[in-house]
Design goal:
Shape: globular
Helix content: 55-70%
Largest sheet: 3 strands, antiparallel
Strand content: 5-15%
Structural class: mainly alpha
Radius of gyration: 21 Å
Distance between the termini: 45 Å
Mean pLDDT: 84
Strand order of the largest sheet: 1-3-2
Number of strands: 5
């Protein structure tokens, strides 16, 4: 089965990106021979699943993206571990939505990722959050929680939610089952469907035409506000109104 780097390359190819073996070797800090091995592995999986393999024209690697990749997505979802971007997304979901905070030992055990890897991921995330004036505080015996301006935390919650919603609808990406399960643990699927119905009624009543880009943003804003009282207590009414 494919490793995380090969899955990332396949995702990009399905999305329409072209590669050269040199680009792959430089991006992943591997030899040209290893880059060719990655593409051979991708071709092997595509072939046994009945898909067209990659095309190589003058060292440019492309893939026919018009194929229906749902089958390969489902198989790969069940047979891989989280790669860096998904681990970051998972950590953000827990930090921004879990009342109990983030326990590194539990996270490491649940997703079969070494504590060393999780700590490195946390360092990357900590640096990213600092740019938005959001900090990480360790609570002894429990784990990590966010600290800082609640307004900025709400904005980041919306961004995390919107990104996940966009990923769910993106048929050119392989999204891990673990990430989706974690997302729907905090943002209930049924609630999202109710929000969609609400937006459609508003759109019809006010004779609006909401574009696709704005649609998930609105869903994300409303879902974050619905979760706000549960996460932060009922003392933030003015902040919630200001945020909306």
């Amino acid at each position: 089965m494919l490793n995380n780097k090969e899955i990332e390359i396949l995702n990009k190819l399905i999305g329409g990106k072209s590669y050269s073996f040199k680009e792959i070797s430089e991006k992943y800090n591997i030899s040209d021979r290893a880059a060719r091995y990655y593409i051979n592995n991708i071709d092997y999986v595509l072939k046994i699943l009945g898909y067209k393999i990659t095309e190589k024209d003058r060292n440019v690697i492309t893939l026919d993206k018009e194929q229906d990749f749902r089958n390969v997505f489902e198989i790969l979802k069940e047979n891989r571990k989280l790669f860096l971007e998904e681990r970051q997304d998972m950590l953000k979901l827990i930090l921004f939505f879990d009342k109990d905070g983030l326990n590194i030992s539990e996270f490491s055990k649940d997703y079969e990722i070494s504590r060393t890897t999780v700590k490195k991921d946390m360092k990357i995330l900590e640096n990213e959050l600092k740019e938005h004036e959001i900090g990480l505080v360790y609570i002894n015996g429990k784990g990590y929680k966010l600290s800082g301006n609640k307004q900025k935390i709400l904005v980041k919650q919306e961004e995390v939610t919107e990104k996940t919603l966009n990923s769910v609808e993106d048929k050119t990406r392989i999204i891990s089952k673990e990430l989706l399960d974690r997302f729907y643990r905090y943002i209930k699927y049924e609630d999202i469907e109710k929000i969609k119905e609400f937006i459609l009624k508003i759109e019809k009543s006010m004779k609006l035409s909401i574009n696709k880009e704005s649609y998930n943003k609105i869903i994300a804003y409303i879902s974050v506000l619905l979760n706000y009282n549960e996460i932060s207590g009922n003392n933030g009414e003015l902040l919630a109104k200001s945020f909306l």
